[in-house]
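Entry 14. Ran structure prediction on the chain below.
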Amino acid sequence: MDGGMVASFNRYFVICGILAIALAGCTTPAQRAAYAAKRAAPQPVVMKSNEGKPMDGSAAAVSANGFPDFNTPLTAANVQISDQQATDIRAQLTALGAQKKAGTITQAEYDRRVIEMRKLAANHGQDTLSEIQK
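Output, structure tokens:
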């Protein structure tokens, strides 16, 4: 290869690099920082023990060689609802909608029941957790 050909390759790669930077769209340090923050991994959530102290993972099952043991069975925080419970809830909601459509309950009563159900949905998890922790 002669010197002229090497120089043309170098110019080509420099031009491609400049185009790549220009096409990236990040022209100011603030834009680059915003882009980097958007692509950053989410912050980890540190769980607390029953005593209120952050857990460091040392309570996890550890095998004889010091590595985490994933063979231990996992336990759920609470039991799942059964198919029968889900069917019952669906029937209640369907009946409420049918009553409203048929006009057997007033709009105010319908709204009251909907607000009651939404309140239950919003607070049920925390209420159950508080009950479990007692």
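The first helix runs from residue 3 to 24. Will compare against last week's run tomorrow.
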